[in-house]
């Protein structure tokens, strides 16, 4: 075709925006101005309050000032933000997802703090609690004045919560709880723990205030992942609770599993935040790092890595956005959340590992975010449903056959 035969630019092509390496599919156009405002506010907060310190916190294995951070997140409306009333923001599912994206782009530990607070502890109280329980706990939790935790996993029962050994028995009008919970985010700093236990009536949820006799939450240390996060064991040694400590609207595994489904949705977005941070680090590095007299971004193999990372990152963001719209429409199924959690965490880990190869030896340094995100995602891959469990959820949905047992 000769140059003279090329058709002139139409009105539509004349309005084409320039290609943006940070948003190659133009996904920002899917977001309303309110969505962008939420995203940009959280991104700015994370850039100011987390990113300058996170490498040091991670190296030390601490999250100093967690109570202050919680209050700041409360002031942003990030705690229980998709819930309504009681000081909660009443945000959309997409806005909550964008918040998880930006927080995990800083660090998985910060997103975990918010997820456990809002999607597990606060959601459980909001969804299953009595009015008096909601009034007592939710306003302080939404403001970040009270931190909550969620006790389901046990030392010997992770993927099979139905086998939990923590037991609650009636004693007159009281309940007495005995058992242990493990790998509990926020546990040792929580003002209230939502603890799930077996009873003669089925699995029930209980609100256990910090300081209750017989209740302790020793912190778990010596972690190589989620180091900038508070992780604890919960120990319940004949903890006596009044009758009004039980969540009245939850009986059976449907209660805790419903909470986990809400939290897993946030992970679908959050994992892509970690992946984005690693991709952007690799992209910037490839354009400035020189080998053989030229930037490594000019070599074919490096460009192939960058292209593959960008594909999986933005496919994952499209998936997260789609699931968010379904949640806002009340049409999101648990199997679809499993679809998103399985894909996005798995692909995020792949992006982090590829980014590490672009950075070479520098990829293992805390001067760059890549190895920190990669090790964090190894925990995200496992918690709130392992790869295998989500594969079986989808397998059952596809075949109609239960392979869990």
Automatic annotation (TrEMBL):
Coiled coil: none annotated. It comes from the Bacteria. Residues 149-239 form the Acyl-CoA oxidase/dehydrogenase middle domain. Its cofactor is FAD. The keyword Oxidoreductase applies. Residues 256-398 form the Acyl-CoA dehydrogenase/oxidase C-terminal domain. The keyword Oxidoreductase applies. Residues 1-16 have a biased composition (Low complexity). One of its GO terms (molecular function) is glutaryl-CoA dehydrogenase activity. Keywords: FAD, Flavoprotein, Oxidoreductase, Transit peptide. SUPFAM superfamilies: Acyl-CoA dehydrogenase C-terminal domain-like, Acyl-CoA dehydrogenase NM domain-like. InterPro entries: Acyl-CoA_Oxase/DH_mid-dom, Acyl-CoA_Oxase/DH_mid-dom_sf, AcylCo_DH-like_C, AcylCo_DH/oxidase_C, AcylCoA_DH/ox_N, AcylCoA_DH/ox_N_sf, AcylCoA_DH/oxidase_NM_dom_sf, Glutaryl-CoA_DH_mitochondrial. Residues 1-25 are annotated as: Disordered. Residues 33-145 form the Acyl-CoA dehydrogenase/oxidase N-terminal domain. GO terms for biological process: fatty acid beta-oxidation using acyl-CoA dehydrogenase; fatty-acyl-CoA biosynthetic process. Belongs to the acyl-CoA dehydrogenase family. This is Acyl-CoA dehydrogenase. It comes from Streptomyces paludis.
């Amino acid at each position: 075709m000769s140059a003279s035969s090329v058709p002139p630019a139409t009105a539509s092509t004349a309005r084409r925006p320039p290609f943006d390496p940070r948003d190659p599919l133009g996904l920002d156009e899917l977001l309303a101005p309110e969505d962008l405002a939420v995203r940009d506010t959280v991104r700015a907060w994370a850039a100011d309050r987390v990113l300058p310190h996170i490498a040091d916190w991670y190296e030390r294995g601490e999250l100093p000032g967690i109570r202050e951070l919680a209050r700041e997140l409360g002031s942003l409306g990030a705690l229980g933000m998709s819930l309504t009333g009681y000081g909660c923001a009443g945000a959309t599912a997409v806005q909550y997802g964008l918040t998880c994206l930006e927080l995990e782009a800083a660090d998985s530990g910060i997103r975990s703090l918010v997820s456990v607070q809002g999607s597990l502890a606060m959601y459980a109280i909001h969804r299953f609690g009595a009015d008096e329980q909601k009034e007592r706990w939710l306003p302080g939790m939404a403001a970040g004045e009270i931190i909550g935790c969620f006790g389901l996993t046990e030392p010997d029962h992770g993927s099979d919560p139905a086998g939990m050994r923590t037991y609650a028995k009636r004693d007159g009008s009281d309940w007495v709880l005995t058992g242990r919970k493990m790998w509990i985010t926020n546990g040792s700093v929580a003002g209230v723990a939502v603890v799930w236990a077996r009873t003669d009536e089925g699995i029930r949820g209980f609100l256990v205030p910090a300081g209750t006799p017989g209740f302790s939450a020793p912190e778990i240390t010596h972690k190589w992942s989620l180091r900038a996060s508070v992780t604890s064991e919960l120990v319940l040694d004949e903890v006596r609770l009044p009758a009004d400590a039980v969540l009245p609207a939850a009986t059976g595994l449907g209660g805790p599993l419903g909470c986990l489904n809400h939290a897993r949705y946030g992970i679908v977005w959050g994992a892509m935040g970690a992946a984005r941070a690693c991709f952007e680090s690799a992209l910037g590095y490839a354009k400035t790092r020189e080998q053989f007299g030229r930037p490594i971004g000019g070599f074919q193999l490096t460009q192939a890595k960058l292209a593959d990372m960008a594909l999986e990152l933005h496919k994952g963001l499209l998936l997260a956005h789609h699931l968010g719209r379904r949640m806002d429409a009340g049409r999101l199924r648990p199997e679809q959340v499993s679809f998103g959690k399985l894909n996005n965490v798995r692909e995020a880990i792949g992006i982090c590992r590829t980014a590490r190869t672009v950075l070479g030896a520098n990829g293992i340094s805390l001067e760059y975010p890549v190895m920190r995100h990669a090790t964090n995602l190894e925990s995200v891959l496992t918690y709130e449903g392992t790869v295998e469990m989500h594969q079986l959820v989808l397998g059952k949905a596809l075949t109609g056959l239960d392979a869990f047992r």
